[in-house]
Amino acid sequence: MRDRGIISKIENGKIFVKPMLSDTCISCTSSFGGCHGSCGKMGEEFEVANPKNLALKEGLFVRVKASIKHQTLQGLISLFFPIMSSVLGFFLANHFFGTEKAKALGVLLGLAVSSTIVIMTNSRLAKKMADIEEIL
To answer: Structure pTM?
Structure first.
């Protein structure tokens, strides 16, 4: 499971969680049904929102989930932006050069540039898109 974490710090109204990377916890028999700190590794700390205004304090285990708004935005960017960039690369190459080789390279270049932009955008958005669902 990668939806659980521990609140590592709360400062200036910002809540930071370290995720439990607990893929090895399927067979774990520790307390609370497994994986509350004894067998999972801790991931990189990230900021989360508290839309339900739960009473939180450092050291609590929480369930974290991505907000629907951010998932939708990330999906639209990941699907449509590379397609549109490839089509744009095709038409630009056709307009300026007109050869089949240039069209193919235009599509590949459009796809490569857009994929790089998508990866950079998603890596920045991913750290700001989680909400605390519940206290475990």
So the answer is: 0.59
